[in-house]
């Protein structure tokens, strides 16, 4: 049986160097969170906008940002106002005929209706998340948020495919729940590029939003041995990063993600690109190989 790949003893220093040297300004403009930060002075607008934006976080970053702009335009420039206008009678038509990949306007209208309902019961979505967090930890917080956004008995029937937009880590197939985990990171982390609007959730409790770029790099750095993007892989990667920064393990997420998105990690051995990379000595593609 081949020996499991593990990061080197010098990996924490290598990762810190990658973080320190990373061109945040370049990647921030390309990241969906750049759409959200202008809303930060108005927490309700940012919280609502973040739910829609994270739900649309499928595909290339430029496409996601474009989809969010189109959806906001369809809502009259203010998604929070669309939530206030959502009723049982108009929700299916509220954001039609929007479409982004497999996500449709009737689903987004139903999301507006669900948010309107949740805000009648909770002052913020943080309060809903905390109900689960206090009951059993981060996964339970995400489960409470997902179930609240899905709706349930007594609500109008959800549009086709809507419930699948909000998976929970507590139910099979124990999805990585990348989009909701990303949303919570945006809301909780008080440091750039995140908004830090939720102040009662400790940043140390966050989990890494495991998109395909972060997973590929994490696997090749030995942060997880899982061969798929599951919730178990999320926990493994987060725990590996928590050993480096217990108070803020997800601060590395943006850097790892955009190292993949930008092409700084070509995902194959290419000395011209990989040579200057701070974590190259830890990568399974390069371990034991001479960079010459």
Notes on the structure:
This protein is an all-alpha fold. The chain folds into two domains: 1-26 and 207-292, Orthogonal Bundle (Endonuclease Iii, domain 2), CATH 1.10.1670; 31-206. The chain has 15 helices and two strands. Strands 1-2 form a two-stranded antiparallel ribbon. Helix 9 (125-136) crosses helix 10 and helix 12 (212-220) packs across helix 14. The longest helix is centred in the middle third of the chain and has 17 residues, at 105-121. The chain is globular, with a radius of gyration of 20 Å. The mean pLDDT is 95.
List keywords for this structure.
single chain; mainly alpha; 1% strand; Endonuclease Iii, domain 2; 292 residues; 2 domains; two-stranded antiparallel sheet; globular; 15 helices
Question: Mind sketching the topology for me?
Answer:
Layout: H1 11-21, H2 24-30, H3 33-36, H4 43-55, H5 61-74, H6 79-85, H7 91-94, E1 99-100, E2 103-104, H8 105-121, H9 125-136, H10 138-150, H11 178-188, H12 212-220, H13 231-242, H14 253-261, H15 271-274
Antiparallel strand pairs: 1-2
- What count of domains describes the coordinates? 2
Please count the helical segments: 15
Largest sheet: 2 strands, antiparallel
Kindly, what is the distance between the CA atoms of the first and last residues, rounded to a whole number of angstroms? Answer: 29 Å
Kindly provide the radius of gyration, computed on alpha-carbon positions and rounded to a whole number of angstroms: 20 Å
Computed structural class:
mainly alpha
- Write down the secondary-structure element order: HHHHHHHEEHHHHHHHH
What is the overall pLDDT average?
A: 95
């Amino acid at each position: 049986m081949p020996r499991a790949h593990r990061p080197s003893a010098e990996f924490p220093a290598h990762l810190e160097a990658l973080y320190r040297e990373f061109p945040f300004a370049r990647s921030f403009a390309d990241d969906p969170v750049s759409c959200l930060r202008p809303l930060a002075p108005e927490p309700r607008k940012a919280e609502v906008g973040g739910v829609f934006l994270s739900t649309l976080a499928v595909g290339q970053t430029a496409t996601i940002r474009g989809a969010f702009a189109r959806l906001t335009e369809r809502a009259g420039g203010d998604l929070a106002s669309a939530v206030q206008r959502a009723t049982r009678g108009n929700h299916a038509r509220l954001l039609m005929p929007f479409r982004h990949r497999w996500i449709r306007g009737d689903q987004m209208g139903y999301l507006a209706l669900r948010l309107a309902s949740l805000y009648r019961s909770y002052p913020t979505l943080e309060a809903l998340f905390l109900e689960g967090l206090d009951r059993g930890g981060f996964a339970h917080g995400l489960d409470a948020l997902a179930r609240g956004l899905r709706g349930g008995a007594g609500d109008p029937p959800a549009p086709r495919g809507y419930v699948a937009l909000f998976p929970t880590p507590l139910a099979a197939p124990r999805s990585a729940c990348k989009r909701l985990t990303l949303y919570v990171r945006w809301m909780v982390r008080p440091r750039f590029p995140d908004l830090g609007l939720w102040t009662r959730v400790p940043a140390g409790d966050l989990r890494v939003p495991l998109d395909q770029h972060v997973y590929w790099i994490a696997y090749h750095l030995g942060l997880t041995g899982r061969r798929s993007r599951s919730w178990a892989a999320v926990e493994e990667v987060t725990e590996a990063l928590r050993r480096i920064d217990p108070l803020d393990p997800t601060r590395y997420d943006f850097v790892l993600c955009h190292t993949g998105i930008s092409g700084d990690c070509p995902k194959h051995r290419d000395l011209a690109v990989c040579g200057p990379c701070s974590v190259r000595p830890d990568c399974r593609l390069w371990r034991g190989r001479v960079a010459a």
